[in-house]
Design a protein that fits this description.
The chain is α+β, with helices and mostly antiparallel strands and 405 residues long. It has helices spanning 12-18, 20-23, 77-91, 120-125, 133-147, 155-164, 168-180, 196-204, 206-221, 262-281, 286-293, 295-310, 321-348, 354-357, 361-381, 388-402; strands spanning 32-35, 42-48, 54-60, 63-64, 68-72, 99-103, 108-111, 118-119, 225-227, 236-240, 246-250, 257-259.
Amino acid sequence: MTDYELLTPETVPAYVATRPQLSGLVDAGSFEAVEVGDGNLNLVFLGRDHDGRGLCLKQSLPYVRLVGSGWPLTPNRVAAEARGYRAAAEHDADLMPACYDFDPDRFILAVENLQGWRVWRDALNGGEIHEGVAEAMGRYVAGLAFHTSLFSLGPEELKARASAATNPELCRITEDLVFTQPYLTHDNNSFTAQVAPVVGELQDDQALRAEVGVLKHRFMTAAEALIHGDLHTGSVMVTHTDDGGARGKAIDCEFCFYGPVGFDLGALIGNYAIASVRAAVMGRPAAFRSWLAGLPSATWNAFVTELRALWPERSETFLTDGFLDAWLGAVLRDATGFAGCKANRRIIGLAKVADIESLEGDQHTAAATAVLRIGRRLILERHAVSGPGDAERVIADVIQEEVGS
Ligand code: SR1
Ligand code: MG
């Protein structure tokens, strides 16, 4: 039971008719919607009117959809998501869908219906190349990092924004599912008997535990900028363009809060690693695998290029070019470690990914083992990285060792 009305495909048209921001965009009378939510948390409706004009409505349930009403969760997370959309629209409207409406009473967000676009994870799992999307995500992270941080905001404004953007319930999910539970025996964990010895090694490794603690502490205390907070490849939509290129947009920013900038980059890199492992195990064509192998550099280099381009516009001029170099080094080390944590959690903890779960038998064991070995090395070796190529080498080396190609 909820104390607000949940949408159904049948009630969406009447709802659209009551919202002035939406009834001007589509014809509510002919609007038809279907529920397509396949994520872990929310209801998602995609619909179109008789002229093909579309909308996407996302409504928060008062609990975690993946688990059910036994795990209550604030539906007001949709307010965090609205904040994330607004922040992106202020500086680069092209890297997220347009956001049309936010209903704080029924916890509904209305955004652009990306008709014909696909979830990037599904495209990667299908062996599809979308050129330029990894770069677009690097620019997206850089834009947020620059425009919502001390680089652009005065000290009072920065603190006011960080304080308004606290998102404790969603952060707690990440703290537990990404940083804590995978390294302990926990009811939320699940893995096959074949993978259990590798999980055991990870959970017994005290050096690793200390480093994961350092990363968890950074996640919980480093309020550098507004970050997306859950920027895995399932939070990116992709499409091909008529000229043979591709586009990408970030979605699903309900986990956003003021955190370490490297966390979003790490989420991407960790999921690129998972995609690379899957591609190796499945024996995908060399061209696809080599494109995948270069995604960490593609995202990182685009992030750095965009940030350096914005840097002369910074308002905090006490921060020198030397500071920027030092900060980028720290972000790279954070991103590498967070990538490892994001990889490990998808094998050990709650909320797995189709990349690995759709594999069976020996393929599944080889892939899960490789992801965990990559995750461990990225966490432990992050202090020595000097560029994204170091993470790429770890991923390639482990794939060679565990998959043999
Ligand atoms: C209980 S929520 C599980 C996961 O879904 C979201 O996409 C986040 O990744 C979260 O950790
Ligand atoms: Mg999500």
